[in-house]
Amino acid sequence: MKDKLKNLLFFSYLSHGQMDKIMSYFETLELSEGEILFNEEDNSDYVCFIISGSLEVVKMTSWRNFTTVIATLYEGSCIGEMALIDHSPRSATIRAHEDTKLAVLTQRAFDVMVGSEPELGVNILKGLAQTLSDNLRSTTDKLADEVAA
10 Å Cβ neighbour count for 83? Predict the structure, then answer.
Protein backbone atom coordinates (compact mmCIF):
# COMPACT_ATOMS: atom_id res chain seq x y z
CA MET A 1 0.00 0.00 0.00
CA LYS A 2 2.83 2.41 0.81
CA ASP A 3 4.18 2.14 -2.74
CA LYS A 4 0.79 3.24 -4.11
CA LEU A 5 0.51 6.20 -1.73
CA LYS A 6 4.02 7.63 -1.65
CA ASN A 7 3.78 9.29 -5.07
CA LEU A 8 0.50 11.09 -4.38
CA LEU A 9 0.55 14.88 -4.14
CA PHE A 10 -1.19 14.54 -0.77
CA PHE A 11 1.98 12.95 0.67
CA SER A 12 4.56 14.96 -1.28
CA TYR A 13 5.83 16.81 1.81
CA LEU A 14 6.62 13.62 3.74
CA SER A 15 10.12 12.18 4.03
CA HIS A 16 10.62 8.45 3.48
CA GLY A 17 10.77 7.96 7.23
CA GLN A 18 7.55 9.93 7.76
CA MET A 19 5.87 7.89 5.03
CA ASP A 20 6.80 4.74 6.96
CA LYS A 21 5.34 6.22 10.16
CA ILE A 22 2.05 7.29 8.60
CA MET A 23 1.26 3.79 7.38
CA SER A 24 0.30 2.69 10.89
CA TYR A 25 -2.51 5.25 10.90
CA PHE A 26 -4.27 3.83 7.83
CA GLU A 27 -7.01 1.25 7.60
CA THR A 28 -7.88 -0.61 4.41
CA LEU A 29 -11.36 -1.00 2.99
CA GLU A 30 -12.54 -3.08 0.06
CA LEU A 31 -15.71 -2.29 -1.88
CA SER A 32 -17.49 -4.47 -4.41
CA GLU A 33 -18.76 -3.02 -7.67
CA GLY A 34 -21.85 -0.91 -7.00
CA GLU A 35 -21.23 -0.66 -3.25
CA ILE A 36 -21.62 2.80 -1.69
CA LEU A 37 -18.67 4.26 0.21
CA PHE A 38 -20.77 7.16 1.51
CA ASN A 39 -23.89 9.07 0.55
CA GLU A 40 -24.37 12.74 -0.17
CA GLU A 41 -25.16 14.55 3.10
CA ASP A 42 -23.55 11.82 5.28
CA ASN A 43 -21.30 13.01 8.09
CA SER A 44 -17.66 13.17 7.07
CA ASP A 45 -14.84 11.98 9.26
CA TYR A 46 -12.36 10.24 6.95
CA VAL A 47 -10.44 10.61 3.71
CA CYS A 48 -9.79 7.73 1.29
CA PHE A 49 -7.11 6.99 -1.28
CA ILE A 50 -7.79 4.60 -4.15
CA ILE A 51 -5.22 1.79 -4.12
CA SER A 52 -6.89 -0.15 -6.95
CA GLY A 53 -10.16 0.04 -8.83
CA SER A 54 -12.31 3.12 -9.39
CA LEU A 55 -15.09 5.14 -7.79
CA GLU A 56 -17.94 7.15 -9.28
CA VAL A 57 -18.87 10.54 -7.89
CA VAL A 58 -22.67 10.75 -8.00
CA LYS A 59 -24.43 14.06 -7.41
CA MET A 60 -28.08 14.74 -6.74
CA THR A 61 -29.49 17.28 -9.20
CA SER A 62 -31.61 20.27 -8.28
CA TRP A 63 -34.68 18.14 -8.94
CA ARG A 64 -33.65 16.06 -5.87
CA ASN A 65 -34.94 12.81 -7.36
CA PHE A 66 -32.41 12.52 -10.15
CA THR A 67 -28.72 11.70 -9.85
CA THR A 68 -25.88 11.99 -12.31
CA VAL A 69 -22.30 10.68 -12.35
CA ILE A 70 -20.10 13.77 -12.44
CA ALA A 71 -16.71 12.04 -12.33
CA THR A 72 -14.94 8.72 -12.14
CA LEU A 73 -11.86 8.54 -9.92
CA TYR A 74 -9.08 6.02 -10.46
CA GLU A 75 -6.06 4.57 -8.66
CA GLY A 76 -4.07 7.31 -6.96
CA SER A 77 -7.05 9.62 -6.42
CA CYS A 78 -8.17 10.80 -3.02
CA ILE A 79 -11.76 11.35 -2.01
CA GLY A 80 -13.21 13.13 0.99
CA GLU A 81 -10.13 15.18 1.80
CA MET A 82 -12.25 18.05 3.10
CA ALA A 83 -13.31 15.81 6.00
CA LEU A 84 -9.97 16.50 7.69
CA ILE A 85 -10.73 20.22 7.65
CA ASP A 86 -14.38 21.15 7.86
CA HIS A 87 -16.44 18.10 8.94
CA SER A 88 -19.24 19.30 6.65
CA PRO A 89 -21.67 16.74 5.24
CA ARG A 90 -20.48 14.87 2.15
CA SER A 91 -21.13 16.82 -1.03
CA ALA A 92 -21.72 13.75 -3.23
CA THR A 93 -22.34 10.03 -3.11
CA ILE A 94 -19.36 7.81 -3.84
CA ARG A 95 -20.01 4.40 -5.41
CA ALA A 96 -17.57 1.70 -6.48
CA HIS A 97 -17.44 1.57 -10.28
CA GLU A 98 -15.65 -1.77 -9.97
CA ASP A 99 -14.13 -3.76 -7.12
CA THR A 100 -12.00 -1.20 -5.31
CA LYS A 101 -9.42 -1.18 -2.53
CA LEU A 102 -8.98 1.96 -0.42
CA ALA A 103 -6.58 3.28 2.18
CA VAL A 104 -8.58 5.16 4.81
CA LEU A 105 -7.34 7.85 7.18
CA THR A 106 -9.94 8.71 9.81
CA GLN A 107 -10.21 12.05 11.53
CA ARG A 108 -9.54 10.29 14.83
CA ALA A 109 -6.32 8.68 13.53
CA PHE A 110 -5.25 12.02 12.07
CA ASP A 111 -5.85 13.74 15.44
CA VAL A 112 -3.76 11.09 17.21
CA MET A 113 -1.01 11.55 14.62
CA VAL A 114 -0.98 15.33 15.04
CA GLY A 115 -0.90 14.96 18.83
CA SER A 116 1.96 12.47 18.87
CA GLU A 117 3.94 13.65 15.84
CA PRO A 118 3.14 17.30 15.06
CA GLU A 119 5.71 17.59 12.25
CA LEU A 120 4.08 14.66 10.47
CA GLY A 121 0.68 16.30 10.84
CA VAL A 122 1.99 19.62 9.49
CA ASN A 123 3.44 17.89 6.43
CA ILE A 124 0.14 16.10 5.82
CA LEU A 125 -1.68 19.44 6.04
CA LYS A 126 0.75 20.94 3.50
CA GLY A 127 -0.01 18.06 1.13
CA LEU A 128 -3.73 18.49 1.75
CA ALA A 129 -3.50 22.20 0.95
CA GLN A 130 -1.60 21.43 -2.26
CA THR A 131 -4.20 18.82 -3.25
CA LEU A 132 -7.09 21.20 -2.60
CA SER A 133 -5.35 23.96 -4.55
CA ASP A 134 -4.83 21.67 -7.55
CA ASN A 135 -8.45 20.49 -7.39
CA LEU A 136 -9.69 24.09 -7.31
CA ARG A 137 -7.53 25.05 -10.28
CA SER A 138 -8.77 22.03 -12.24
CA THR A 139 -12.41 22.86 -11.43
CA THR A 140 -11.89 26.49 -12.44
CA ASP A 141 -10.37 25.39 -15.77
CA LYS A 142 -13.30 23.04 -16.45
CA LEU A 143 -15.84 25.76 -15.67
CA ALA A 144 -14.05 28.20 -17.97
CA ASP A 145 -14.06 25.61 -20.77
CA GLU A 146 -17.79 25.00 -20.30
CA VAL A 147 -18.59 28.71 -20.36
CA ALA A 148 -16.49 29.18 -23.51
CA ALA A 149 -18.18 26.26 -25.31
Answer: 21
**Side-chain half-sphere of 40: how many Cα atoms within 13 Å?**
15
For 2-148, the fitting CATH number among 3.30.1120.10, 2.60.120.10, 3.30.360.10, 3.30.390.30 is 2.60.120.10
The predicted pLDDT at position 81 comes to: 86
**145 in Cβ contact with 125 (< 8 Å):** no
Q: What is the per-residue pLDDT across 1-59, written as a single tens digit (0 to 9) for each?
A: 888 888 888 898 999 999 999 999 999 999 999 999 999 999 889 999 999 999 999 98
Radius of gyration, alpha carbons of the chain: 16
Alpha carbon separation from 50 to 39, 79, 93 (Å, rounded) = 17, 8, 16
pLDDT at res. 39: 92
| Model confidence, pTM | 0.85
- Contact at 8 Å (CB) between 23 and 46? no
Angstrom distance (rounded) from CA 58 to CA 72:
9
CB 89 within 8 A of CB 44: yes
